[in-house]
Amino acid sequence: MGLAFAPEQYQAQLDAKRQRLIELLAPFGAPAPEVFDSPREHFRLRAEFRLWYEQGVPHYAMFEQGDKRNPVLIDQLPIASQRINALMGPLLAACKADPQLGRKLFQVEFLTTLSGQALVTLCYHRPIDEQWDAAASQLAAQLDIRLIGRSRGRKRVLGDDHITETLQVDGRDWHYQQVEGGFTQPNGEVNRKMLGWALDVVGDNPQQDLLELYCGNGNFTLPLSTRFRRVLATELAKRSVQSAQANLAMNAVDNVTLVRLASEEVTQALTGVREFRRLQGIDLSGFEFGTVFVDPPRAGLDPATLELVRGYPRILYISCNPETLAANLAELHSTHRISRCALFDQFPYTHHMESGVLLERR
Fold this sequence. Notes:
Layout (H helix, E strand, L loop, with lengths): L9 H16 L8 E3 L9 E9 L2 E6 L9 E3 L7 H16 L1 H4 L2 E8 L5 E7 L5 H14 L2 E6 L2 E5 L3 E8 L2 E8 L8 H15 L2 E9 L7 H4 L3 E8 L2 H13 L5 E5 L2 H8 L18 E6 L8 H8 L3 E6 L2 H11 L3 E9 L9 E8 L1
Parallel strand pairs: 1-16, 6-7, 11-12, 11-14, 12-13, 14-15
Antiparallel strand pairs: 2-3, 2-5, 3-4, 5-6, 7-8, 9-10, 15-17, 16-17
């Protein structure tokens, strides 16, 4: 991804995605999808480049999918954020000029925010030490970035290992810690639209609670917390749980209970099949879940989780894989109908698409 860039073809590609989603959802009587487009350029907030050396001189390189032998050498990337593009030249020049920064450097990773913060990770095929720290500190100050160095078995962090994104959703600013190496939504503007749509479709539920599976760093959890009495949010990945906890505290959200459990374990806990030490002190029977929100990995929902979510009046489902979404909907169609659906163009110029559906009990 990243080498295909044809703004003149964007609308036709978006129309094709919309038609594909319509066809996938047609068996379930879905309404016409709401479509949320992307900026045509500078939409991607993170990027990763290998370095390719020609006569000892490094260049940023990308590769077509499945081809690691024929690099495409670049100095700018139109789909990447303006901040990434502004940093690419000065960063590489500094690495060329200083052996402490450039020697055996093989990969550069950029993470940026809509608000202009940037974290850069430099990856090496050699050990790095205090001498690297001194040179890297000067570079970080010069470019106003957070900088991390990685080599086998070593990670050197200058300052923080995260940056803070700020997204305005429904008139409120939400702040998110984004950690190096952790998952973040790559298209900030489309993510903001996606959060706004989720708030719109759930409405206000002051007497009900929300069950959220796969909450990640709390991307949806934070704004959705304003629409429910309480939220029980679950996530398995330790790093994501830590970021979610930090984000809840940073935004002064106090009605969310966050638990580190896999979706299958949540099913076991809520159905009384098994007790978990991590749930000690949490009264599951005190929750009144009217809505369950899921944003699963590409494989979709497993059979046990499908049966769990079927038991709730409303299911809000965000999907990064329309095929597995359709397969899950085939299972849920007997008990729930689609009342709203949407297409979010997180990945322009590719076949990938993010979609969302609100299911309500028949």
